Amino acid sequence: MQRRDALRSGVALLGGASLAGCLDTLGSESAWRDLVVDRPEAVYVPPEIHGMATWASVNADGYDLTLFASRPHGFWTVTGTETNQVAMREAHSVHLMAAVREPASGRYLPAEVRVSIPYEGESTDRTLWPMLSQRMGPHYGDNVTLPGPGTYPATVQVLSAGIRHRDRTTRFDPGVHEVEFEYDPAAIEALDRTVLDEDRRGEPGAVEPMGHGRGEHAEGGSHVEGHSAVPTAPSVEAFSTHLKTGTVGDCRVVVALDGNYLIASMRTPYNGFPLAFASLSARIDRAGSSDTLALSESFDPELGYHYGAPVDLDGGERVTIAIETPPQLARHEGYETAFLDRGEFSLRLPP
User: Fold this and answer.
1) Which residues on adjacent β-strands are paired with residue 84?
2) In this predicted model, what pLDDT tens digit does every residue of 127-183 receive, in sequence order?
3) Is the pLDDT of residue 221 over 70?
4) Are 67 and 55 in contact (CB under 8 A)?
5) CA 324, 98, 66, 58: dihedral to nearest 10 degrees?
6) Which residues contact 211 (CB under 8 A, 6 or more apart)?
7) At 9, which helix (H) or strand (E)?
8) Among 53, 43, 223, which Cα is nearest to 134's?
């Protein structure tokens, strides 16, 4: 698909560094921690957590857009089942992030987000990576370079990811937004930065998302009125007919029926963030026949982002859910070794 091609090409455009080369390009204690943490091949507690500042907010027709900034830091892109570490460089000024939400529910909306920041006859242009972090959940981001402190205009383009919307009212047209933000290097450096206790780093688990547990929010006011600060996948109770919650590696997949519509809602453990931009299929085995169908990326304000397809079921069938391609999401520390498995699990429908 087009966005996955963009994700692959982005690796070549932005460049990466081998682990051995990270200390040369990053020259930071973040790179050193990457080496000293014994990372499990699963979700783990990262070495530190970062605060963030809100730079701009837009209430558009069909979505809410918010821009955030934090200190620059490294991350990993994903191509198929392989990861590539993207270097943080001395020239990087901030880690720029965008959140796109469905206005009524506050749920995460898959999109393509492009940012252009003009300055001094030049410009910083980025298609932000679809990303996942334990503090911010699913978002779009990249490290960017700015020449110095000051007020900057920016053009932000939000494009639909081309997924199915079960409720037509949640569809949105592409939007172009002119915003302005104040870049103050001292303010970015002053953002909260907490190094976690050594006995927690690298252990299975996750830190709490922004806005959960302590009433916190991004500096500048990132709280979305009426919604939690970070969107999570719906609870099992939100599905009318829950069939099974299966696992493939660290992916949790809630399988349910809504009438004749088969749903696979894939999410992270611990924080329950939706896992986007994967490929899933369902094989339905009946007496004497077997059918395989693709589960399409879909959005519903009640069910959130999920994978689904209409099905014709009589009862008693064996259903096998397969992850054909794992989530093609860039990841921050704590997620870069997880959600890379292909695999399947099965369930049998009641008669």
Assistant:
1) 77
2) 999 999 999 999 999 999 999 999 999 999 999 888 889 888 888 889 999 999 999
3) no
4) yes
5) -90
6) 217, 222, 223, 228, 229, 230
7) helix 2-14
8) 43
Contacts of 126 (CB under 8 A, 6+ apart): 96, 114, 115, 116, 142, 144
Report the topology of domain 236-348.
Immunoglobulin-like (2.60.40)
Rg, C-alpha atoms of the chain: 20
Domain 2-195, CATH homologous superfamily name and number: Periplasmic metal-binding protein Tp34-type (2.60.40.2480)
Cα separation, 138 vs 7, in Å, equals 15
Count other C-beta atoms under 10 Å from residue 167's C-beta: 13
What's the predicted TM-score (pTM) here? 0.85
Q: Rounded distance, CA 283 to CA 324, Å?
A: 12
> Hey, do 2-195 and 236-348 end up sharing a CATH topology, with the first three levels equal?
yes
Mean pLDDT over 317-324 rounds to: 98
Q: In DSSP terms, which residues pair with 306 in a beta bridge?
A: 298
Residue 153: CB atoms within 10 A of its CB come to 12
Helical axes 19-26 vs 29-36, angle rounded to 10°: 160
Q: What is the DSSP string of 192-226?
A: -EEEPPTTTTTSBS-PPPTTSSS----BTT-PPTT
Domain boundaries, the chain: 2-195, 236-348
d(CA 82, CA 328): 10
User: Which residues, 6 or more positions from 127, have their beta carbon under 8 angstroms from its beta carbon?
Assistant: 6, 10, 112, 113, 114
Asked if 301 contacts 105 with a C-beta cutoff of 8 angstroms, the reply is yes
CA dist., res. 63 & res. 60, Å (int): 5
Expressed in angstroms, the distance from the first to the final Cα of the chain is: 37
